[in-house]
Amino acid sequence: MMKRNLVTISLLAVVSSFAFCQSEQLVINLPPASLPGTLIFENPKGSIKITGFDGDVILATGTLRFREAESPAIDGMRRIGQNALDISAEVNGNKVTLMSKTSGKTVDFDIKVPRNFSLKLKSLDNGKVEIVNINGEIEVENVNGDISLENISGSAVLSSAYGNITAVFREVNPTSPMMFTSFEGDIKLTLPQSVNARLKMKSEKGEILSDFDIKEDKRQAVVKKNDNTQIYSLEDWVVGSINAGGPEYIIRSYNGKITIRKR
Amino acid sequence: MKRQFLKEKLLDLVHGNLTPEEEKEVIAGLEKSGISLEEIESLRSINRRVEEAPLPEPTGRMDKRFYAMLEEEKKKVLLGEPEMKMQKPLIFSLISPGLRIAAGIALFLLGWFASGWFGSSPYGGKQMASLTGEVKQLKETLVLTMMQQSSPVERIKAVNMVGDFDRVENPIIESLIGVLNNDSNDNVRLLALDALVKYSSDPQVRNSLIQSISLQTSPMVQYRLAQIMLGLNEKRAVPEFQKVLQNASLNYSVRSKINEAVAVLL
Fold it and tell me: Do A2 and B23 lie within an 8 Å CB cutoff?
């Protein structure tokens, strides 16, 4: 058995209890060896906004979306608010796991992380996931809300069931495959003009648009064996290369529109 | 801790020969010198895989070949060696040291050209075949290791690599099924599903696909499974789809596709 060896971290929690804005900020000082690292965060209810900045700490601010009703004074005494939010973090090697216990309340998170950082995020309900200015590997699952990436360098694996996906890449990792899936939502992808990639796209009910010169592969015949009969059909993917071709980007929707745009 | 000491202990760590206390100490030391837990763990998992890999049993044919080669070597030693010993001093006594060096260089160059010349001889074919086999084995081990990585990009690469194999071995199939049912990322699950469809004529794969139906929550994966079961005309999928239909929050489009599948398959 491997013993988990936790690197000690200094956590500094600043609780700013403004009357109208119930929020809490957690400052995570990162040991120098942990850069570039990975932030893992799962928000059970609420949105996540991540912004890359030139620093070596993580600033995580959680804000209750719906203000708790001010309770009337009882016998001349005010109720002293207890911590509505419970944010904590664990730093393990170069992995930072942020945890939030919110007892069913909707909490929106605004997190600043060093620019060179990878992200593994999940929002389960009630919010969008927004990521700006990050160089790294980004993994997001947001079942019910939108996912938007802006000014990204690196790669992304994004999926949603009901939300729209928008991703704007300044640069891409030349060897990383990417995947973008939304069952009901639209997928808008903006890639650098000089990107070398092989696109594999499909939308059951939606259309596919692009201003790239995509060299479409000849569609391959697919053979399905069905007990004794063989069924031939054309491959139902649109497959094509941009520029010299490269790692595979799979973009798939059921109801949504797919747009691939030049940056 | 000293680097040399760490180096020695790293091997012990990878082979699992340390007591829990020592292990803790070594890991701490390694982390101080900038080696992450993940790297250590990946080293260990590679080692485990190498140790678990079955060693090929020597066959009767190999035995025969071995003894034949042994006999040949014996003959060579008995016949060839004495003559050579006789000649050596005679030749060397006639040549000056300068000439000896020149001869050495000439021999080296001759060897160089000869290796280029004969490198493409038919004997190369056999060696290439065994080398290709080894490369394939290595690639399989790599794919299995990559499927366990925490980065989804690595796992996507691993699933994509399976497509390059002509024949896929059982451990790979099992690993793909594991990804389909347990991967934390819906995108990677979807990719594993598409990779597995190619092997759906294998009854084991077919059964796993059917069993997987009720384990999936992503609408895209559910929809794709309904499509696949329709394509395979797989009647045994119906009870599994009926389980999925009981979920009140099932996506509308997925529900109608599954209803269609059930109606056709029944």
Answer: yes
Residue B50: pLDDT band (50, 70, 90) is: low
Give the nearest partner residue to A155 out of B153, B185, B218, using CB atoms. B153
Chain A residues closer than 8 Å to B221 by CB: none
Which of A33, A177, A255 is facing B153, going by the closest CB pair? Answer: A177
Residues contacting B245, CB < 8 A, separation 6+: B255, B258, B259, B262
**Interchain CB distance below 8 Å, A155 and B160:** no
Q: What tokens does B206 get?
A: 């077919």
For chain A, the helix, strand and coil percentages under 3-state DSSP, each to the nearest 5: 0, 55, 40
Using a CB–CB cut-off of 8 Å, the residues of B that contact A are 20, 23-24, 27-28, 31, 34, 36-38, 41, 44, 151-153, 156-157, 160, 185-188, 190-191, 201, 218-220, 223, 231-233, 251, 253-254
Establish, for the pair of chains A and B, how many residue pairs have beta carbons separated by less than 8 Å: 94
pTM of the full predicted structure? 0.71
Q: Report which residue type is found at B70.
A: L
d(CA B27, CA A101): 31
3-state secondary structure of B95: coil
Q: Could you tell me whether strands A147-160 and A165-172 are parallel, antiparallel, or unpaired per DSSP bridges? A: parallel
- Give yes or no for a contact between A137 and A155, defined as CB atoms under 8 angstroms apart: yes
Mean pLDDT of A75-87: 72
Residue ranges of the domains in chain B?
A: 3-49, 70-116, 132-265
Q: Per mean pLDDT, which range of A85-94, A205-214, A254-263 is the poorest?
A: A85-94
CATH 3.30.70.270 for domain B132-265, yes or no, is no
Mean predicted lDDT score pLDDT of chain B: 79
**pLDDT tens per residue, range B116-135:** 555 555 555 677 778 888 88
Q: Look at residue A60 and tell me whether its pLDDT is greater than 80.
A: yes
CATH number belonging to domain A11-66+82-196+244-262: 2.160.20
Token pair in block for residue B138: 């290595």
The ipTM (two decimal places) reads 0.84
Q: Does residue A93 carry a pLDDT above 90? A: no
Please list, in sequence order, all residues whose beta carbon lies within 8 angstroms of the beta carbon of residue A11, skipping any fewer than 6 positions away: A26, A27, A28, A29, A88, A89
- Is pLDDT at B46 greater than 90 in this prediction? no
Choose the closest CB to B36 out of A93, A118, A161. Answer: A93
C-alpha–C-alpha distance, residues B216 and B193, integer Å: 11
* Amino acid identity, position A161: A
Mutation site for B-interface testing, chosen from A139, A147, A252 by largest number of B Cβ within 10 Å: A139
CB neighbours of B56 closer than 8 A, spacing ≥ 6?
Answer: none
What residues in B contact A147, CB-CB < 8 Å? none
Q: Which residues, including other chains, have CB under 8 Å from residue B103's CB and lie 6 or more apart? A: B95
Contact at CB, B151 and A225, closer than 8 angstroms: no
Structural domain boundaries in chain A? 11-66+82-196+244-262
List chain B residues with CB under 8 Å of A94.
36
Residue A208 binned pLDDT confidence (cut-offs 50, 70, 90): very high
